[in-house]
Specification:
With 629 residues, the chain is an alpha/beta fold. α3 runs antiparallel to α4, α8 runs antiparallel to α9 and α14 runs parallel beside α15. The structure holds ligand C2E and calcium ion (2 copies).
Length: 629
């Protein structure tokens, strides 16, 4: 919700309360007035004071009509105006006739006071002004001849002075009530502004107000031809703190970091004039710092270094050192950016670059990153098009039993033919799909088509092996995924035992409950699960027992390094092999490119193998031919 809308909602609530109060006030006063007017009007008529009597009765009738209209329309403002008019006429009438036994003046005081209170301050001043002016004319000028009674000069002066004093007090009270009301409205608006503009946890400006500040500062930088630096900070390993120590510990860490960040870039800094709002928390563990009017882009790196120093030797919260660091991306206007509003995206991209380059460091937005960013945007566009225009297809890579070289499984691999993605393989477009959320649709498309293919292979080509489908690590956090898989299995009438889902080992996070729950749900469906690219992740080997995995796929880099000089790497295949034996898991070796590799793997008890030496990924017809032979 935007700030303006939030404020409106809050103020509308206040207005509604005030409206209800005025509504009740108008109703009660009109009702009292009607009773008063009818009683005194009737008495006056009985006593022969026809003018006074009929005026009072007419006013009473007007009061009843007003009450009725108020009930009908709920229009308090109009009702108050009409009531105000009735009271004005009544007061004038009492002044002119002198009222019953010349007591009219005494009745005028409370009536005028009530008349003021049903109005807001300025309308009340008007009413009072009109009444005072009319009274003065009637009491002190030749218009006195209009009066139906006579007042001595002393009476007239006393009346005017008492009126003035009494009503000045009423107006003052009204004024202070109005001011109190305004203050409450303002405080209310401030509260809402705080909520809409600032982050609740750290009190820093939030994403919304940051964008507003950025726009303002960029406009100024553009006008004054100044440089503006933007630091995009993302904490490394923050998720682990949340997972291991709970969200409250995570919150305390963020709060402490925000305080230290404030300290670090305090405007005592030569670089920064005391400017408000140069800091913001954009989301979770993402913060930004704006550096207006810097002389040199290097000034931004000075600030970045100081921020990184906060994390030197770990980050202490509650007497505990957390292994949390920061990655910082820096973009400077107008160095590379021509389009000022890209600055945030650029700093963000530079931050990702910092993260990919070993973390706890900063990176400037460079031409290289700009190119990568553009490439990513192109890929994203191509992928969206591919999904809509059916430019996706599958190729099939046979997997062989090491013992007898028979085909025991087929891995489906995704290809994309959209013109924008010429020469771009899944290694490049899958990460983009994951970052943009397109992956969920893509994974479902692949599973759907792979199961359809498996149906044809089983029913028409007597294929007995498994179909192996790659799924993204993103699915391990997608609660809907297991059911989607089940529905597709049912739809294509495929036995789950003939399906293997491959998920890359790096997607596994130790202790991640959601991930484990989803894996278990998939396992329950009856499909088998393979840990892909095994050896590249950080799975503590003793964790393997907790995962419902059936198979380890040795990453092809290790197969490639089988005969390399580097002992640590060439031993890896052996290590994975013995590990699999220990946990009773099947082993598939990927990326077998030579006879020697295959022989070695076979001799060391590897179950299955795939790779260019055995077969390249095949088109559908090619696969059918290979299966025939
Ligand atoms: P992956 O699951 O490890 O797939 C194996 C990749 O290694 C394939 O590349 C395959 O063509 C390649 N490969 C197999 N044998 C050899 C070999 O002997 N030598 C060499 N140099 N390469 C070999 P591809 O098709 O480019 O796929 C790359 C990655 O993209 C896959 O790695 C997988 O992580 C991902 N991917 C592919 N298809 C899908 C899919 O349908 N869905 C999802 N979510 N990811 C996919
Ligand atoms: Ca795979
Ligand atoms: Ca792999």
């Amino acid at each position: 919700m935007t700030y303006a809308r939030e404020m409106k909602v809050g103020q509308q609530e206040m207005l509604a309360v005030r409206h209800r109060r005025r509504y009740t006030l108008c109703q009660v006063l009109t009702l009292l007035g009607v009773i008063f007017l009818t009683t005194f009007g009737s008495l006056s008529l009985i006593n022969g004071a026809y003018f006074l009597g009929s005026t009072l009765i007419i006013n009473a009738i007007l009061g009843v009509v007003n009450l009725y209209l108020l009930k009908l329309s709920g229009n308090v403002e109009r009702a108050a105006r009409v009531l105000s008019g009735i009271l004005l006429v009544l007061s004038m009438c009492l002044l002119i006739t002198g009222g019953e036994s010349n007591t009219g003046m005494l009745w005028i005081y409370p009536i005028v006071a009530i008349n003021l209170f049903i109005n807001r301050f300025w309308p009340a001043v008007c009413v009072f002004g009109i009444f005072s002016a009319a009274s003065m004319l009637l009491l002190f000028t030749p218009l006195t001849s209009l009066l139906m009674t006579s007042y001595s000069l002393t009476e007239a002066i006393r009346f005017m002075l008492t009126m003035l004093a009494l009503n000045a007090i009423c107006l003052a009270a009204l004024r202070s009530e109005e001011q109190a009301y305004q203050t409450i409205m303002q405080l209310h608006a401030d509260d809402i502004r705080q909520m809409a503009y600032y982050d609740m946890l750290t009190g820093l400006p939030n994403r919304w107000s940051f964008k507003f500040n950025l726009e303002r500062m960029l406009t100024r930088a553009k006008k004054d031809k100044q440089r503006l630096g933007l630091l995009y900070i993302d904490l490394d390993n923050f998720k682990q703190v949340n997972d291991q120590y709970g969200h409250e510990a995570g919150d305390r860490l963020l709060l402490k970091f925000s305080e230290q960040l404030r300290e670090t870039i305090r405007p005592s800094d030569e670089l920064l004039k005391p400017q408000a709002e140069i800091l913001a928390r954009l989301a979770g563990d993402e913060f930004v710092v704006l550096l207006p009017n810097i002389k040199d882009p290097l000034d931004a790196s000075t600030v970045a270094t100081r921020i990184l120093n906060i994390f030197e030797g770990g980050f202490k919260v509650d007497d505990f050192d957390h292994m949390v660091y920061a990655s910082i991306g820096i973009a400077v206007y107008p160095d590379i950016t021509t389009e000022p509003f890209d600055l945030l995206h650029h700093a963000d991209a530079a931050m990702y670059d910092a993260k990919n380059n070993g973390r706890n460091c900063f990176r400037f937005f460079t031409q290289e990153i700009a190119d990568k960013l553009q490439q990513r945007q192109l890929i994203e566009k191509g992928l969206r098009l591919a999904l809509n225009e059916k430019h996706l297809s599958l190729v099939y890579m046979p997997i062989f039993d090491c013992k007898d070289n028979s085909i025991v499984a087929v891995e489906v691999l995704l290809r994309c033919q959209s013109p924008e993605l010429k020469g771009v393989g899944p290694d490049q477009f899958i990460p983009v799909a994951e970052a943009t959320g397109l992956i969920k649709d893509i994974d479902l498309w692949v599973i759907d088509n792979a199961l359809q293919a498996q149906g044809i292979l089983q029913n028409q080509h007597n294929f007995k092996g498994k179909i192996c489908i790659n799924i993204s690590g993103v699915e391990l956090h997608n609660e809907a995924f297991p059911l989607q898989v089940k529905n597709l299995l049912d739809y294509h009438k495929i036995k789950p035992e003939s399906v293997e889902l491959e998920v890359t080992e790096t997607a596994f996070v130790a202790g991640d409950i959601t991930c484990l729950r989803i894996l278990k749900a998939l396992d329950k469906l009856g499909v088998s699960i393979a840990l892909d690219d095994f050896g590249t992740g950080y799975t503590a080997f003793n964790q393997l027992i907790h995962y419902p995995a059936d198979c380890l796929k040795i990453d092809r880099s290790f197969v490639n390094d089988l005969f390399s000089e580097r002992e640590a790497r060439n031993k890896m295949v052996m290590i994975i092999q013995s590990l699999a034996k220990l946990y009773d898991l099947r082993v598939i070796a990927e990326g077998v490119e030579t006879e020697a590799q295959l022989t070695y793997l076979r001799e060391h008890g590897c179950d299955w193998a795939q790779g260019y030496y055995l077969s390249r990924p095949l088109k559908w017809d090619e696969l059918l031919n290979v299966l025939k032979t």
